[in-house]
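Run: sequence + magnesium ion -> complex structure.
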Amino acid sequence: MNNFLETEIKFLPGVGPKRAEQLNKELKVYNFRDLLYYFPYRYVDRTKFYTISELDPEMQYVQIKGTITGYFYEGKGSSRRLIAEFSDITGTIRLIWFKGTRWIPDSYPAGKEYVIFGKPGVFNSLLNIIHPEIELAEKRESRLTSALEAQYSTTEQLRSNYITSRFISKIIGNLFQMINFRIPETLPEYIISEYNLIALHDALYNIHFPPNNLLLEKARYRLKFEELFYIQLNLLRYRIHRNKNTRGFVFSKVGDLFNNFYFNNLPFELTSAQKRVMKEIRKDLGSGRQMNRLLQGDVGSGKTLVALMAMLIAADNGYKSCIMAPTEILAYQHYRSVTRFTSGLGIKVLLLTGSTKKSERKQIEKFLMGEEPVILIGTHALIEEKVQFNRLGLAIIDEQHRFGVAQRAKLWEKSSEPPHVMVMTATPIPRTLAMTLYGDLDVSVINEMPPGRKPIKTMHFFDSERSKVFAFMRSQIKEGRQIYIVFPLITESEKLDYKNLDEGLEILSQAFPPPEYCISVLHGKMTSANKEISMKLFREGKAQIMVATTVIEVGVDIPNATVMVIESAERFGLSQLHQLRGRVGRGADQSYCILMSSEKLSKEAAARIETMVRTNDGFEIAEADLRLRGPGDIEGTQQSGIPFDLKISNLAKDGQLIEYVRNIAGKILENDPMLENNKNRVLLNELNRLFSRKYSWSNIS
Ligand code: ADP
Ligand code: MG
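>> structure
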């Protein structure tokens, strides 16, 4: 019967090869099952009729009954259109067609009564409905429709081939008539009864043809439950599978490197969150199974240090380790701080980026294939095929949301046996999204900032208030502080009306002239040598101001910088703003984030800015981001491999249900980890059907 559902859509009565092609292309509906799972985006009450006198152009879709009193044409060439006068006893409106104008008067002759459905509009101060759905009134009345009529989204392309929402509804109806059996259940009986779900067959029928709101809700719940449940079951199953089958190197001891570092080189006390996370990591590393851990911690919470300590433990056990950063600037910064933190310990620290010279690279490769444990720091250059390790024990990815799944996967192949893997991310993601994106990883959270940090004060100014901002900057510089100014663009853009760095620099050079002031510049189009010169100027305090693009967004750590000015802040997303703000507030001094914007702000941009001013809490910001943008747009989710074309559930809104089904999935796997039990056979079949092809990467992150 599953085979039946896989029948190509062209074989469905009413479809045929040409429309099938359209459905394939536009809606990705290839077979009967795809069509059953092409859910309506909303429902309209088709029992309700309006009179023409009640209509106004602000209304959404309306249904009216009346008579076509005559047809005529208007306009020339491509704007030629067919117009019908349509009247009921309360008034007249125009029905307008730009396409299909030839056959409409024949199909719907004047003088008869019709039911019209469409969105009212206005043109030349006359009310109209463009391309209405139209049906003979007597036919409409005989047609069996439920009160709630499903509306399916279509495309321009489909509509011009007469594949309308109603057509889709009709072929789904045809399909249900063909199905002379119950659609096979995709959840085990015991789950259905225990969690009060309705049968799949009924859910699918009712989602397309709901007899009433109650049954529609039940249908939606069952289908959401199932969609989210299988995602979680799949993630958890991989985790169990991996834990069972992938052995990990055993780092049994904490040796001299770690201890020397901890007792002699570490200039401050670890926060208790850092200590707890280190314990979690050490437990993994000593367990004999491969670590796959996500380390989450807000910007500035001290993740780099945790990474370093884990790498020292690897070295103490004779293994090499590497850390991959998304930008050269960040890689270099890690290299500097790791070198400093490990000075005198006698561990080799290497840096490999795209601009490493060939001769140096040869040297590095020799070290990587050698016997000595080393720490390698690098960018994407590190996952190039040429780079191979002898005894790579631990691979760390910093700012992992900047990398795709495929890139992460490559780290596994760097050594004959897979290393322990830790991915670090500061971009806070809401819990529910994390459960889905990283649901197969163990998670450690640094939920505490190093002591003495004052919360960053965030303020919003309009471009017209720039002089106030400049005065504030001068006063901060006078106190010895440093300032970042970030621009969304390097040069002027014809399309985008945002501040650009070139112009900004000109204005700033006048407001902050040499020799009193020194401004350093940093953007992606500079050579890496020049970038480093700029960074150095700023790091050493010789420049008070750094003018930059978002190249400084991640990781850059200069504690004396206390002011972050973001130009055209309306241009940036919330997580990006939060990351940028995270560049300050890294020392003991009070820090400030100044969001500059034009006066014209869209509602969303105003909401983003308001959120930033209100809170410093990364998780709260992440929740707001999810609400404002939806999960598909959150940084990192695109590459995650999770199907964000979820058919019915919504990661932003269905958080509770996600937690609920994750627990259920966890319990099932606890009792039957391989899903071998007879009663769970359905689960295994469904998992294989849903995930086998697309998700073979899942065992690698
Ligand atoms: P992130 O989590 O954003 O990567 P970093 O690792 O860059 O944060 O740490 C931010 C700054 O805090 C660095 O200058 C680091 O040396 C410092 N730091 C880290 N841990 C502590 C601590 N326990 N006490 C004081 N400062 C710390
Ligand atoms: Mg960092």
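>> summary
Residues 303-304, 398, 555 surround magnesium ion (ligand 2) (CB under 6 Å). The two ends are 36 Å apart (CA to CA).
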